[in-house]
Amino acid sequence: MAELAPMTPVGGALTPVERSSVVSVVAQRLLDHLTGGNFAPGTRLPPERQLAEALGVGRSTLREAMAALGVLGLVDVRPGSGSYLTADSSELLSRAIEWSLTLRQPRTRDLIELREFLEVMTAQLAAARADDDDIGALERHVEAMRQAGDDVDAFVAADLAFHFEAARIAGNTVLQDILSSIRSLLQVWFDRTLRVPGTIGATLAEHEAVFDAIRARSPEAAQRRMQELMDAADVRLTATVGSVDESSGPDPDDSD
């Protein structure tokens, strides 16, 4: 398969993203690059490190952006092989619009509502099905959240890992796939929310409560604790979405 040419699409080269943690900005830059270059399906994208350097972001941020593009069917991320374009430029243009709308009201709120229902179900199933090894794996993610301190990127990674682990323990592959897609699309808002002072401490305590319930093998308690976590997270997330929408207005430079 043909490799992507140097990062010089129509209209100029990719430039660094000023707010490196904003996953949607990174995804939009990649979309602009791909739609402007008339690349063929199957084109292999440059290595992760090269893309991250070109955009001026960390590799973890780039991975989240690539995962979101994968959810939309634009990019095929193949572990150990690389990332490949899955659609032609005309399809990418319509998908770019879909990406933009996905992170706005009211669809974002619809995703938040669906995620809440699925996460509560996941916790309940995990508590009923977890073995000792599962509990140990889940505890490692909680400890990683504690060790992250005020490092938002590290905390977000551990937070996501905790939820992915719980979904794995729940043992329902369809549930895992749906949750993975929703989390990828909402990732930019998780990142924003956790940068609000005091949020990390409260979020850690909520996850510890969920873990304790799963460790106790109590589906009822796990369901209740996850519902509490989701209620608190949804209040924060909805407030963040609303404040961004109200402040962004018609600014053409607002790529979130």
TrEMBL record:
CDD domains: WHTH_GntR. Pfam families: FCD, GntR. SUPFAM superfamilies: GntR ligand-binding domain-like, Winged helix' DNA-binding domain. Keywords: DNA-binding, Transcription, Transcription regulation. The keyword Transcription regulation applies. SMART domains: FCD, HTH_GNTR. One of its GO terms (molecular function) is DNA binding. Residues 20-88 form the HTH gntR-type domain. InterPro entries: GntR_C (IPR011711), TF_FadR/GntR_C (IPR008920), Tscrpt_reg_HTH_GntR (IPR000524), WH-like_DNA-bd_sf (IPR036388), WH_DNA-bd_sf (IPR036390). The keyword Aminoacyl-tRNA synthetase does not apply. PANTHER family: TRANSCRIPTIONAL REGULATOR, GNTR FAMILY, UXU OPERON TRANSCRIPTIONAL REGULATOR. This is FadR family transcriptional regulator. It comes from Nakamurella leprariae.
